[in-house]
Specification:
14-stranded mixed beta sheet, about 500 residues, alpha/beta
Length: about 500
């Protein structure tokens, strides 16, 4: 089994067709596969072998899509890194994964050069374009002239294909190990019965499991995709109008931006039949308003990076149930258990467990975290919810303190550590606060050392020097002492309640 068969099956089932449009240029599925084959030849010539990790850090573009297929063709493991990550964060990924080769764009090459100092296993930085970085190699001409690799390197179904790093409440990102079976186990026709050559829009980052899932779904369903480098609401309306987009995938924040766009009525969006929503909780009010304004269907779902972004959705013909994220996909199972691991009946609240072919094999070189998360084949999500009598899942809370801002998982611990590194900070807690656009926003509460003085802007600037801008708290509140329980543990729930109470003051 090899994940690159997704692209080969696409060629066999649909023949040649215009599969991708990007920045004014169109590419057929045959051209994309040919480019991926030539890139695979170059990677193999640079020493990439089966099982080697290849990090890719670029904004969405055809080269990123080709990188997935190229790495898989020769049996490698792809590690997509968000283009927003700084050198220190990428350096950790390189070091932890023992990446052998990094692929990037010219504008990000200097960042990779800095990051590579922390990852000595990274032997080469290969660049799509000219770069002034010493030691980086422009592979543009090499790929253009290389003969394409046709035969796939044989891989077992449980061999590693994809390494996606996800932030958690314990601090450092964990590498989610996704096998070839995980990658190819896509939605069943019962939940996605779509016509071939359907015009779609791809705005989700290809460094996120949701984005990878939609890229692969496009291959399976023979979609025609208009690829955007990043989210820009005006460009989305232009794409729907000009490309006659019928469906695309979003996180709920994107839907809010579309509803709030002041010029939305000047664009023809009549082609839009529906959107898939995921990555964060979908407020029912937002769903209803979006369906009313755009006269289309909003289909919600639930999954985790640890389940390749997929676990539940609404099947074809299912009526929406307010608060529900749908039911288990045909190949998946959902269970609800209590704290003792006992299965609960319909309507009872407990931890959500996921089983099926998309469940990860574990966390990269982290046996302790793997043992705590995957037990007897069941993925323990850390989310609290219940199933109704018909098997529809409802997520009601999160046991974990992970903040989901705009569909991105953010570790409070990472931001707290940045605050603690300030010489005036004695205690710090970072929590997610409900936000109408992002789903959650990041707020911090701190207690200063006796006699110390620091302003909110000073602390925010200090955090900005340690994490990317998206993770900087919007607000930093000062407490004389942060609330604790009788063991001295900081109480995040009480901190969140106090911050919410102070919002209107």
């Amino acid at each position: 089994m090899n994940s690159a068969t997704l692209a080969l099956d696409n060629l066999e089932r649909f023949g040649e067709y215009p599969a991708l449009q990007f920045a004014g240029s169109a590419y057929t599925n045959v051209e994309l596969d040919d480019y991926a084959g030539r890139l695979a030849t170059v990677l193999q010539a640079r020493g990439v072998e089966a099982g080697d990790r290849v990090l890719v850090q670029m904004a969405n573009c055809p080269e990123v899509m080709a990188s997935f297929q190229a790495v898989w063709k020769i049996g490698g493991v792809l590690l997509p890194a968000p283009p927003q990550l700084g050198a220190a964060e990428v350096g950790y990924l390189l070091e932890n994964s023992e990446t052998k080769v990094a692929l990037t764009s010219a504008d990000l090459a200097p960042r990779l050069e800095q990051a590579a100092a922390a990852g000595p296993s990274c032997e080469q930085i290969l660049v799509f374009g000219e770069s002034e970085v010493a030691g980086a190699l422009d592979i543009t001409e090499a790929v253009a002239s290389a003969p394409p690799i046709r035969a796939l390197t044989a891989r077992a179904s449980d061999d590693l294909a994809l390494l996606l790093y996800t932030s958690g409440t314990t601090g450092k990102p964990k590498g989610v190990m996704l096998s070839h079976e995980n990658v190819v186990s896509l939605p069943h026709p019962a939940v996605a019965d779509l016509p071939p050559l359907m015009p779609t829009l791809h705005v989700l980052p290809l460094s996120h499991s949701f984005g990878v899932l939609m890229m692969n779904l496009g291959l399976v369903k023979g979609m025609r995709a208009l690829l955007h480098t990043h989210w820009r609401v005006e460009s989305v309306f232009e794409a729907i109008r000009d490309f006659e987009v019928q469906r695309f995938a979003v996180v709920p924040t994107m839907m809010t931006y579309m509803l709030d766009f002041p010029e939305r009525e000047s664009y023809d969006t009549s082609s839009l039949e529906g959107v898939w929503s995921g990555g964060a909780p979908l407020p029912d009010e937002l769903r209803r308003e979006f369906e009313r304004v755009f006269a289309c269907e909003v289909r919600d779902g639930y999954g985790m990076t640890e389940s390749m972004g997929a676990a539940t959705t609404y099947w074809q013909g299912d009526a929406f149930r307010p608060g529900s994220v749908g039911r288990a996909m045909p190949t998946m199972s959902i269970d609800i258990v209590d704290e003792q691991g006992r299965r609960l009946e319909a309507g009872a609240h407990g931890e959500v467990l996921i089983a099926g072919p998309t469940v990860m094999s574990g966390y990269w070189r982290n046996e302790e975290a793997t043992a705590a998360t995957v037990k007897d084949g069941w993925l323990h999500s850390g989310d609290v919810g219940y199933l109704d009598e018909d098997g529809f899942l409802y997520i009601t809370d999160r046991k974990k303190d992970l903040i989901i801002k705009g569909g991105e998982n953010i570790s409070p611990r990472e931001i707290e550590e940045a605050l603690y590194s300030h010489h005036c900070v004695s205690e710090a807690v970072v929590v997610g606060i409900p936000h109408p656009r992002y789903g959650e926003d990041i707020w911090a509460a701190v207690a200063l050392r006796p006699g110390a003085e620091a302003s909110e802007e000073e602390l925010r600037a200090h955090v900005a020097a340690h994490v990317i801008k998206f993770k900087v708290p919007t607000r930093v509140a000062f407490f004389d002492e942060l609330p604790k329980n009788n063991t001295g543990k900081l109480q995040k729930r009480e901190v969140r309640e106090r911050l919410l109470a102070s919002e209107g003051e």
